[in-house]
Write a structure and sequence with these properties.
Strand content: under 5%
Helix content: over 70%
Order of helices and strands: HHHHHHHHHH
Number of strands: 0
Number of helices: 10
Shape: globular
């Protein structure tokens, strides 16, 4: 019985790999509307807790229609869809870690998309995109905090909303500041991704009521060291 169960799990796993690869091939070779229909079909069939991953799935669709049409990005899309379905259909055992990885990849890809389009100058569309991007990053990380962690209370209280509101405002200001740095969009994306991850990484500490001076100093000291390393590796274009 145990052997049969393992074989069934392996069959489902490889079926998921083939499904993700097939969808990436459709995205690369066929019209976008076919990819869209198949994406929603594969996601909702079978219907099993579809709303828990629906927001990351929408971000996946957005990136698919705004990313470069090449093989390397098709591989990234296949990986993202594989993780999304693996979490939704309860195929992965450590779904919490998989969700964290999914969120980090989505956030970095969103940063790259933004700075590749608005990284050299800022106008009204870029300004709207800054605040929209920051809101999406906060929502993604908020979902990562609550997914598979019943001990973390849902961010519905006034304190929680204020905390995420401040995080949204700070990330928006960081993004605006990085736009004016004389570096390429990859470096801009890496810088904003890192600073956003550090800031949002403090949220469970703050919301859990475990903020101490030592913990804050430790986190910011580590963040400062990594920030210096990143800034040292960036090629500045003055």
């Amino acid at each position: 019985m145990e052997t049969k169960l393992k074989l069934n799990l392996a069959r489902i796993h490889w079926s998921l790999v083939l499904k993700a690869a097939f969808l990436a091939a459709v995205w690369l070779l066929l019209p976008g509307w076919i990819f869209l229909i198949l994406s929603f079909y594969f996601y909702f069939v079978p219907i099993f807790h579809p709303w828990k991953l629906f927001f990351p799935f929408l971000i996946f669709i957005f990136l698919a229609f705004n990313g470069p049409a090449d093989i390397s990005f098709a591989v990234i899309l296949a990986l993202l869809f594989y993780i999304i379905l693996g979490i939704k259909d309860l195929i992965f055992i450590d779904r919490r870690s998989a969700y964290d990885i999914l969120v980090l990849i989505l956030i970095f890809l969103l940063d790259i998309w933004f700075f590749s389009n608005f990284g050299e100058s800022i106008g009204y569309p870029g300004l709207v995109s800054v605040f929209s991007l920051s809101a999406v990053l906060c929502l993604l990380y908020r979902g990562a905090l609550s997914y598979g962690n019943p001990g973390w209370r849902a961010a519905s209280g006034r304190r929680d909303n204020i905390a995420f509101g401040l995080a949204w405002l700070i990330i928006s200001q960081i993004t605006l500041a990085v736009i004016f740095l004389p570096i390429n969009f990859i470096s801009q994306s890496a810088l904003v991704f890192f600073l956003s991850a550090v800031l949002l990484g403090l949220m469970p500490v703050y919301l859990g009521g475990a903020v101490t001076r030592r913990r804050i100093l430790t986190n910011f000291s580590a963040a400062f060291v990594f920030l210096v390393v990143i800034l040292g590796l960036i090629q500045w274009g003055f």
